[in-house]
Amino acid sequence: MVVMFDLDDTLFPEMEFVRSSYRTIARRYGHGLLDGMMQSGSPREAFDSTGLPVKELIKIYRTHYPDIRLPWQSLYTLSVLKNRGIRLGLITDGRSLTQRNKIRALGLDRFMDSELVFISEEIGADKLSEVAFRRTMDVCGADEKYIYVGDNPQKDFLIANRFGWVTVCLIDGTRGENLYSQNFGFFPSENCPEKCIGILTELLDFDDFRKRI
Residue 91 burial (CB < 10 Å; 0-12/13-18/19+)? Predict the structure, then answer.
């Protein structure tokens, strides 16, 4: 069995990365900027609040090494699955440097098969293409059972559904701060997950995983 995960708002709350960038900016340009950024409704609003060149702040946002931690739900779930011999990987959209920094800061290298980490900038294709999903099956074989766990019905589940993977949506992320809508009524059925969970540890209750205890 192979379980592939989305990264942002699935394994950790993306807002923690955003707040980390605010702290980095404040350390560089003045701690007095932090409160205004933290109270803003979006990164762009936060950057505008500083009065500093937005282009430079976006560069810091994308390239800083983040002060983030893996939530206990993710740490526990990944540890149990790994110990049961299940292959784990990532399919995530984003820039290589940004996503690789997150992966290292979260310690995900301990759990993820290096052959099964696919970042859209590195492979030249996002999750709405078939590239990462096909490469996963090329590595692991057509006869494996595949599960994809994500949070965003706009792009996380369409291709996985098309290939017959089990698709699982984490509702409200790890702390209820999802950056994207999870209102399934806005999306066609092919974009929607097969299963929904409220906390990542619920994955361990799936029959396929319990058989491996």
Answer: buried
Classified as helix, coil or strand, 12 is strand
- Could you tell me where the DSSP H helices lie in 30-125? 34-38, 43-50, 54-63, 72-83, 96-106, 120-123
Q: pTM surpassing 0.85?
A: yes
CB 191 within 8 A of CB 154: yes
> String of b and e for 98-113 (b: at least 16 CB within 10 Å)?
bbbbbbebbebeebbb
Find out whether 8 and 154 touch, Cβ atoms under 8 Å: no
pLDDT tens track for 122-156: 999 999 999 999 999 999 998 999 999 999 999 99
For 9-59, what is each residue's pLDDT tens digit? Answer: 999 999 999 999 999 999 999 999 999 999 998 999 999 999 999 999 999
Cα angle 103, 14, 102 (rounded to 5 degrees) comes to 15
DSSP secondary structure string for all residues of 135-179: HHHHHH-TTS-EEEEES-TTTSSHHHHHTT-EEEEETTTTTS--S
Q: Phi first, then psi: give them for residue 49, nearest 5 degrees.
A: -65, -20
Structure-token pair, residue 150: 């994500």
Q: How many residues are there in the chain?
A: 213
Q: Given this model, what pLDDT does residue 173 score?
A: 56
The one-letter amino acid code at 186 reads F
